Amino acid sequence: MSKEKKPDQVVYDEQQQRYDAALKAYGTNLGAPAITTHDTTHWKNRNIEKVNKELSTRYQELKKQFDTLRSEYEYNNLIYNARFQFEPNVGATYYLYRDKKEQTFLSPIAPDECNFDYVGTFQLTADKLWKKLPDPQ
Question: What is the mean pLDDT of residues 102-116?
Answer without folding.
Answer: 90
